[in-house]
Design goal:
Helix content is 81%, strand content 0%. By secondary structure, the protein is mainly alpha-helical.
Length: 408
């Protein structure tokens, strides 16, 4: 049966079509990011409501990020031993557990339970972040960028559904504040299990489509792939979170700032519908460099102007730049790793991304206090220049080889 499924995938790839299973993973990713958006919307507020001291309000969300960083590599190891399907089912169980514990925490006013709930949510995210890599298993290299891009595009659903769930379920008569927001994780987990049950993975890609790169060529791709995804996440979080803080200090209304952030989130995921085609057209290196350029433009705008319009424009540039860097880096990694080293390399990649994302979430308030908005943008501009130069140096040696995996 696996041989038949593999042959079907290869046939679809030869016609330029993605397998139907890829769309199931895109839906799973939409659920993953919906839970993440709900979490970022309510975590600090629920924490402040239940914490013994205001200073502890962000501890649950911090624990969630720490759990993602700690459990990402173990999740990859579990996949290597037991397969992606069992791993994703296990991850969905942690999402359900987060919902049950979070509901109980808000009902019984238990702060430690709330911390545990966000820890469970972080473990779920550590597993769910591998959906984009699962989509390329068994696919020919020309189709891998499109598969990664499509799965990441699931975040566009989250940009709309996450805020709607948070607002609609925050205060419902007869239930504690935020309790139904956490209860929604149970439903999302059950839907995820149903989708994964129907998903048919191919854990062993056919030999014909495995990478045949030499170690030197592979290294020249893996390093810039990891740097692109991780640095894009770091820069995006630094500027997005600090922009929220700055808009608050500028007395921008909550509705206006919320719309600005929602526009940024849409800009992060909407390009995914075409990022795969762009990768096929211009190649990995040029896509990554374009991402750095867009991130640099967002930072430059933050240096030149401090106003609401400049912040909104910068956030949109930031979102598109993140998409090119994150999707481009993931696609480059997917086209480079072999079946033998994919779980280990993907685990290292996502662990580094999680660490950078965590730093990007915790540092903005500190940087705003110590160096201010303009200097933070200057720092991000320097990071873009360094990462872009690193990508250029690593991938200039064999540009033709780097483009071999993609049709012109």
């Amino acid at each position: 049966m696996k041989d038949i499924a593999a042959a079907s995938r290869l046939s679809q790839a030869s016609r330029g079509k993605l397998p139907g299973m890829t769309y199931l993973l895109a839906l799973c990713q939409a659920i993953n990011l919906t839970a993440a958006v709900v979490s970022v919307t309510i975590a600090a507020l629920a924490g402040d409501m239940l914490a013994p001291n205001h200073a502890w309000a962000t501890v649950p969300y911090g624990v969630q990020f720490a759990a993602v960083a700690v459990f990402t590599y173990p999740a990859a190891s579990f996949m290597r031993r037991h397969g992606r399907k069992k791993a994703f089912l296990l991850g969905a169980m942690f999402l359900i557990a987060a919902g049950v514990i979070g509901y109980d925490a808000t009902t019984r006013h238990g702060f430690l339970q709330l911390i545990a709930a966000h820890g469970m949510l972080g473990i779920y995210v550590a597993f769910a972040n591998f959906y984009r890599f699962a989509a390329v298993d068994g696919l020919a290299q020309p189709m891998r960028p499109k598969a990664v891009s499509l799965v990441v595009a699931g975040g566009l659903v989250a940009a709309i559904s996450g805020p709607l769930l948070s607002i609609g379920l925050k205060d419902v008569g007869g239930f504690a504040t935020f309790s139904l927001c956490y209860a929604s994780f149970v439903l999302l987990g059950l839907i995820t299990i149903a989708l994964v049950v129907f998903w048919r993975p191919i854990d062993s890609p056919p030999t014909a489509i495995q990478s045949v790169d030499s170690p030197n060529v592979a290294t020249s791709r893996i390093a810039p792939a990891i740097v692109a995804s991780a640095s894009s996440y770091l820069i995006m979080n630094l500027l997005m979170v600090q922009a929220s803080l700055l808009m608050e200090s500028m007395c921008v209304s909550f509705n206006a700032s919320s719309l600005a952030i929602q526009g940024h989130v849409i800009a992060m995921f909407a390009p995914s519908f075409v990022t795969g085609a762009i990768l096929v057209r211009v190649g990995h290196r040029n896509c990554l460099l374009a991402g750095y350029l867009l991130l640099a433009c967002a930072a430059a705008l933050g240096i030149l102007a401090v106003s609401l319009w400049a912040m909104v424009a910068g956030l949109i540039l930031l979102g598109v730049g993140w998409n090119f860097g994150y999707v481009g880096g993931g696609a480059l990694l997917a086209c480079t790793v072999t079946d033998r080293n994919r779980h280990r390399t993907q685990g290292i990649n996502d662990s580094i991304i999680a660490i950078c994302a965590t730093a990007g979430a915790f540092l903005p308030a500190v940087l705003q206090t110590l160096i201010g908005w303009r200097n933070t943008n200057l720092l991000c501009l320097a990071l873009c220049a360094i990462a872009g130069a690193f990508t250029w140096v690593c991938m200039r040696e064999a540009p033709a080889r780097n483009a071999e995996a993609l049709p012109s």
